[in-house]
Give the backbone structure.
Amino acid sequence: MIAGISLKVIDYICSMKILIVEDGISLQEIMTLALRKEGYVVETACDYDSAVEKLSVYSYDCVLLDIMLPGGSGFDILEYIRKENKKVNVIIISAKDSIDDKVRGLELGADDYLAKPFHIAELVARIRSVARRSNNDGDFAYRIGNVALEPDTNRVMVDGKDVPLLKKEFDILAYLMKRRGHLIDKAVLAEAVWGDHVDQADNFQFVYAQMKNLRRKLADAGADIEIKSVYGFGYKLP
């Protein structure tokens, strides 16, 4: 069904979900707006307890973690993340630009350390860098069969020809291609693409509609991949 499978994972801009753990409301808002403009799904926590609660319930690709937080330390959150074996990139963002803090953070498993103040462009570059390192690949494209997806350019191609997709269709395909072979709960897919406010939705009709359109566009373009529905659960890209 799928010929010549080659998966080359990259800096996945549009499907990447980020948690900002920062008690400075002004900085938190600036980071959130800037990163959403870059195409990321962004959620926030302003203290230790809310950060741990979100990390225990939701999955993230990257956590931007302040050290000094109401109710606890960012280092303790980092220890929690690694103890739970959560596969998430962590970038410490702190006003404490000391060698001891950097060393401790890296020894606890942080992927990078960025001192305040910083430029948003540098933050975005750091996020992309840790994503590339964690995926251990530099091709900057997902490839399965005759389908290629380039998050940096928001392009999807079948046999080298562009397939126009709406943003959410693109995000769904990127999420599934990144997790090829895994059975994805429809609620998990909706939360990953639309954010955790999707909990307020009465049903998943919006997911079904986007999935139907995505499948049609891929089929019309001659894609040799097929997104499978698993009744009562969700979706799988074999």
User: Anything to note?
Assistant: The CA atoms of residues 84 and 189 lie 22 Å apart.
